[in-house]
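Encode chain A's predicted structure.
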Amino acid sequence: MISGLGYWVIRLICASLRWEIIEPPSLQFVRAAGKRMIFTSWHGRIFMSTYHFRDRGIVVMTSRNRDGDYMARVIERFGYGTARGSSTRGSVGATVECLRAIKNGRDVGFTIDGPLGPRYVAKRGAAYLARKSGNPVVPFNISADRKWVMRSWDHFQIPMPFSRAVVLYGDPIFVNENASEEQIQAAEVQVQQSLDELRDRSDSWWGRR
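Encoded structure for chain A:
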């Protein structure tokens, strides 16, 4: 019942939004090369992300707890696959599932500061997936001009109906399969910087016009 309610709340609110999607030209080259994408964003933006990426068969990493159970049921209704695990529980198994999904031609995604924060601090994992799979990390951020912000650790955002929403994608970040530990760490810093920049730009998107 809870999952069904969550599905309809997301669908009805997000269907009313006026969406603007901004992609860098480099993403077209990634698609033309037949590469899969490792999408990363912040935990507090799950609401809008779930709707924006619907029905693409993306495999998403979800936590092995009660909240993760509810979330898995909701996103499966939107056409996602799930890899159960997080940075705190079941990370190895979930990583293997994500690599298998990429090998089978599916994009993957996860919230890089989840499941418990700290907020807006990227955890390890994205660069490792990129190195092992040969496919790029693609940071993105979604913001709404009018929204409710929850008093949770992630400042979970729910857009108000009929708001404007913007989706900003960053340039793809590749990691060589022979990358050293230092190079992997440098890629992780690059992911953090890209996500920070995208969040700052999208959150102030309408104030700049």
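The chain has one domain: 2-203.
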